[in-house]
Structures are given as structure tokens and as C-alpha cells.
Structure prediction request, 211 residues.
Amino acid sequence: MKLPSRFYAMVDTAGGQDPVALARILLEAGARILQLRLKEACSRDFLAAAREIVALCRDHAAILIVNDRADIAKLASAAGVHVGQNDLPLADARAIVGADSIVGVSTHSVEQAQAAAAGGADYIGFGAIYSGGLKNVANAQGLKRLRAVREAVSLPIVAIGGITEGTMPAVLAAGADAAAIITDVVRASDISAKVRALLAITPDSATGESI
Prediction:
């Protein structure tokens, strides 16, 4: 698949926003691929939010990927699901959402990336790239390992973990097709302006960062 944007937007409540309201802001600012990540929501609320956001995505020619929950993705008619290493296996997630849906897989090594590619993933997530971030990661993967993954697989790579507007150019230059950013977006004073700035970033604007 070809990702519709270099900015992979995360609908996460870490900034205190209502998920549907946040999705609307992201979409109106130009985001074209969203992931709904509601770790604390009950299934009923998760599904209700997913259905509303799918409708918003249709209005903006965008797609919604649901984090973890293949059942929610299927019921909400989302574009696909994203699973982690400890979630449903790739083949089982694919069986639930269907052959034509998108399945992304979180990876943290070259071996996991290659396994996801061999298993038929449509794209992979890779990270955490930098220390800190929403999960307060202490031992980050860094750009060197991102480059190694880029050399090992041909799938689109969504880099994640501690990425900001300032570091996104280097992440793209290191081989990521897109950057998933949570904290720098949801805690921005002006989310719309932040999204527009991220959408304008290209790999050519990298500063030569080499970690």
C-alpha cells in the first residue's frame, strides 16, 4: 500500500480531548490517515467513537485505522487495524477485518519487521525512535536501527515514539514513509497549526541528525 500522508495522525486522549472532536480537528487541518488509540475506553465507547470517526473520514477522503481491536475495526467499517507484538497475531487480525482491509503491525527489530512482511502486513510501525514520548521510553531504537529496518523490508514504515516537529525530517530522511506523533500534537497549543506544519515537512528538510 501507499500511505496517504507522511504524517500518521493519532487520535489519543492523552491531551484530554474528546476523540471525535480531536479527529475532526486533525481532519480539517489536512490529516488523511488516522489511528484511533483508546487504551482506557470500554468496548461500547470505543465502537461508538470509531463509527463517528469513520463517517468523518469519509467526508474528508481519509482513512481510519483502529489500534488493537480488529473487532471494532470490522464493526465500524474502518479501513483497517493496527496490532502490536502482544495483540492478535497478524493472520487472525486479517481473518477478522478481511482480505481487503489494511493490517499494520508494530515492530521493534529487523527480525520482527521481516516477520511482519512475510506474514502479509500492509505496513509496519517501528519504534520507539526517541526516548521519552507518551510511554516515557528509556531505551530508544534510534535512526540507525530505523535505517537497518528500511534496508530489510520494502513495506511502508511508520516511525513512532518521541517524534516531534523538529525531529520528523530526520526520521523521514532515515527511511520512514510516515511519522506517527502523539504528544507533540495533542498537547500543542494550536493543534490545527501543528498538523499543517507537520504536513509541510519533507525528508529534504532534515538537519543531518544521525543517532
